[in-house]
Amino acid sequence: MKRKNNLYNKILNTNNLFLAHKRAKKGKSHYSAVLKVDENLNQHIFKLNQSLINKTHRTSKYDIDTRIERGKERVIYKLPYFPDRILHHAILQVIQPILEQTYIKDTYQSIKGRGVHKAKDRMELFLKDKENTKYCLKLDIKKYYPNVDNEILKTLIYSVILWMDKSKW
C-alpha cells in the first residue's frame, strides 16, 4: 500500500476538530465535561488546534476503573473528554479510511456497515460449505489489547502513515 503523507494538517484542521467534538459527544451530551466544552466550544477547539500546531499537546493521565460486567472483571482506561477524546476522534476521522484499506474482507470489529450480524452471516455461509469446512475455531484472547506489543503496532501504523515523529515514541 502506498504511504500517505501530510495527514497531520488534516488532523489539526479546525473543521476536523469541530466534527470530532460532534462525534465524540454522541450519546454523552449530558456529561458535565461535554457541557463544559460546549459552553466555550470555539475557545476549546482553538486551544486544541494551537497545541497541535505548536506540537505541545501531551496525552492526559488515564483514569483507571475496574467493574464487573456479565460476571467478568473489566479494567476500563478512560481519558478526559477534552482534549483527548476529541483528538482521538480527529485522528480516527483521518486515518480510519486509510487503515481500513489494509484490512482483510473478514474484518468486522468497529467498521461502519459491518459488525456482529455480518460476521455471523459470513460464518454461517462458511459452515454451509461442509465439503471445504473441516474446522471451526472459536476463541477469546484474555486481555488481548493490554498485551499487544505497542512498538510493533506503531511500526505497522508508521509504515502506512508518515505524519508521526518516531523520535517522540
Furnish the topology, listing elements before pairings.
Blueprint: H1 8-12, H2 14-24, H3 32-39, H4 41-53, E1 63-69, E2 72-78, H5 81-100, H6 116-128, H7 150-158
Helix pairs in contact: 2-5
- The helix count comes to 7
Largest sheet: 2 strands, antiparallel
**Overall residue-averaged pLDDT value:** 87
Strand order in the largest sheet = 1-2
Count of domains:
2
Helix percentage: 40-55%
- Tell me how many strands there are: 2
Based on CA inertia axes, which overall geometry fits?
A: globular
From N to C, what is the helix and strand string?
Answer: HHHHEEHHH
Instruction: Note the gap between the termini.
Output: 23 Å
Cα-atom radius of gyration? 19 Å
The residue ranges in which pLDDT falls below 50 over 5 or more consecutive positions are none
Instruction: State which percent range the strand residues make up.
Output: 5-15%
Structural class: mainly alpha
Describe this structure as you would to a colleague.
This protein is mainly alpha-helical and 169 residues long. The protein folds into two domains: 125 residues, no CATH class; 36 residues, no CATH class. It has a two-stranded antiparallel sheet with strand order 1-2. The longest helix is centred in the middle third of the chain and has 20 residues. The radius of gyration is 19 Å and the shape is globular.
